[in-house]
Amino acid sequence: MKESGAMNNIQLILAKSGDEKLIHTMKYNSFLSLYERYRDEETNPVKEPIDKVVAQLKSETTNYYIIHFKSSPVGAVRIVNDGIDNGEQIYRISPLFIIPEYQNKGIGHSVINMILDKYDDADKWRLSTIKQEKRNCHLYEKCGFRLVGNEQIINDKMTIVYYEKKVKL
C-alpha cells in the first residue's frame, strides 16, 4: 500500500526560528503552478512575504512542521489551534504543501494521518482547498474530511471550498 510505505519514511519535525527561509522557499515552489493556473493575486502563498512565515512561527496558536521524506525536507504543514467552539477543540490545517517532485507519492495522506494521531485532543479539524483541484479534494475526502457547503469565489477560474472532519463524537 502506497501510504503505509510512505509513512515509514516520513518525519514531521517541528519548525523553529531559522527555518523560515526553507519553509518559504518550499511553499513558493509548491504553490507556483497553482498561481500560474489561477492567478489568485490575493490568496496564493506565492505572493506572501517571508515575514508572514516568521510571524506564523512565532504565533502561540501555530505549530509548523517540516515534512522530511527519506531525511530530505519535501514540504511543510501548519497546524493552527482555533480554540474551543461549542465545547469542541478545533484545529485547522493551513497549509499543507509538498514540493512538486514529491507529490503523488502518498506523502500528503500519510502526513494527515500522522497529524490526526499527534493531536489526539482534537474534536474537529478544518481545512480549505481549491474546488477545481480534484486531486486535493479527493485526498481530503479519502482522509475523512467532508465538505461543509461554504464556497468562496476568488476569480472566474478558482473557488475555495471548506472541509471539516469530526474526530470525536
Quick summary:
The protein has 169 residues and is an alpha+beta fold.
Q: What topology emerges from the helices and strands here?
A:
Layout: H1 2-8, E1 10-14, H2 20-38, H3 50-58, E2 62-69, E3 72-85, E4 88-98, H4 107-118, E5 124-130, H5 134-142, E6 146-155, E7 158-166
Parallel strand pairs: 4-5
Antiparallel strand pairs: 1-2, 2-3, 3-4, 5-7, 6-7
Structure write-up:
Helix 1 packs across helix 4 and helix 2 (20-38) packs across helix 3 (50-58). Residues 1-5 have low confidence and may be disordered. The radius of gyration is 15 Å and the shape is globular. The protein is of the alpha+beta class and 169 residues long. It has one domain (2-166): 3-Layer(aba) Sandwich (Aminopeptidase), CATH 3.40.630.30. Strand 6 (146-155) and strand 7 (158-166) form a beta hairpin. A 7-stranded mixed beta sheet has the order 1-2-3-4-5-7-6, with helices on both faces. It has helices spanning 2-8, 20-38, 50-58, 107-118, 134-142; strands at 10-14, 62-69, 72-85, 88-98, 124-130, 146-155, 158-166.
